[in-house]
Write a structure and sequence with these properties.
There is one protein chain. By secondary structure, the protein is an alpha/beta fold. It folds into 2 domains: about 240 residues, QueA-like; about 80 residues, Thrombin, subunit H (Beta Barrel), CATH 2.40.10. Strand 5 and strand 6 form a beta hairpin. The longest helix is centred in the C-terminal third of the chain and has 15 residues. The protein is globular, with a radius of gyration of 20 Å.
Length: about 350
């Protein structure tokens, strides 16, 4: 299966630079796989596609303000550090720019010295392992000094950092937001619950590997970056009850999908679990858990586009994307949503 099979034309002006003023006022495209139909709505209409007994699975990860700006202690040169994942206490895998100045043993000072870092080594993919020193609580220091790590295709600053956070975020650790969840408001979730829909939560800390470009022409040669996940006993029970009743399990986002399908692939069933997943879902994959998928519009040639093509059908997805461009939908992290039934 070739990388070019997952390409499409996208005018640059359709890449959303700001979130919608009200979260659930974004647009919603609905794809029915059985009828092969495409319809256009606003996000609030999602409630019309959820029935009593269905389960909505949400990723409760919380984005770290993981972008730090510092200076090298010896030269005063400016340096940017992006936290990816914690590998040991106070020690993180990071991306550093400019990389040429980030030699092992170099020390970096952030803020007024509230946080310092020492580069320990270079990773296989060109990142850096940094050990941090500080007074107090690391998360509080990071909250003071760090910025939200917006994707590179968003070139504007973010006035309200909470808009790159879902309203149900609670487990801190992501380097990027699970963007399908950004559309929900508290009021909409309450209405969904009152309709008899169960909410279930998983955790997957999104790494930047999710957005790493696929460079292999034959996509099956691509290696995914591992991400940490947790699946609780409570969520497993809620999903099992929905399945027994013949109700839908609706995954909110590719991240929730990857948790559920990773565990099912590992054990042949859902059971409580935690660990790291590098599952790569592309056409031909056999889904065991989810019945519907809510997602945003993804980059051309991305692993996320491959995942939704696996859940539906590549040609149907590309047809939907063509309609999205024609109808001026907003794309990527702050863009509009798609519900695949």
């Amino acid at each position: 299966m070739k990388l070019a099979d997952f390409d499409y034309y996208l005018p640059e002006e359709l890449i959303a630079q700001d979130p919608t003023e009200i979260r659930d006022h974004s647009r919603l495209m609905v794809l029915d796989r059985t009828k092969r139909s495409i319809s256009h709505h606003i996000f609030q209409d999602i409630i019309n596609y959820l029935n009593s007994g269905d389960t909505l699975v949400l990723n409760d990860t919380k984005v770290l303000p993981a972008r730090l700006w510092g200076i090298k202690a010896d030269t005063g040169a400016k340096i940017e550090v992006l936290l990816l994942k914690m590998v040991a206490e106070d020690t993180w895998e990071t991306l550093v720019r400019p990389g040429k100045k980030a030699k092992s043993g170099s020390k970096i000072v952030f803020g007024q010295g509230e946080l310092t870092g020492e580069i320990l080594e270079t990773t296989e993919v060109g990142g850096r392992i940094i050990r941090f020193s500080y007074q107090g609580v690391f998360e509080e220091v990071l909250d003071k000094l760090g910025e939200m790590p917006l994707p590179p295709y968003i070139t504007k600053g973010l006035a309200d950092r909470d808009r790159y956070q879902t309203i149900f975020a609670r487990q801190q650790g992501s380097a990027a937001a699970p963007t399908a969840g950004l559309h929900f408001t508290s009021d909409l979730l309450e209405k969904i619950k009152k309709k008899g829909v169960k909410l279930a939560f998983v955790t997957l800390h999104v790494g930047l590997g999710t957005f790493r470009p696929v460079k292999e022409e034959e996509i099956t040669n691509h290696q995914m970056h591992a991400e940490y996940y947790e699946l609780s006993e409570e969520t497993v029970k809620i999903i099992a009850e929905a399945k027994e009743l013949g109700k839908k399990v609706v995954a909110v986002g590719t991240t929730s999908t990857r948790v559920l399908e990773s565990v099912a692939a590992k054990f042949g069933e859902l059971r409580p679990d935690k660990g790291w997943t590098d599952i790569f879902i592309y056409p031909g994959f056999s889904f065991q858990v989810i019945d519907a998928l809510l997602t945003n519009f993804h980059l051309p040639k991305s692993t996320l586009l491959m995942l939704i093509s696996a859940f539906s059908q590549r040609e149907f997805i590309l047809e939907a994307y063509e309609q999205a461009v024609e109808n001026r939908y907003r794309f990527f992290s702050f863009g509009d949503a798609m519900l695949i039934l």
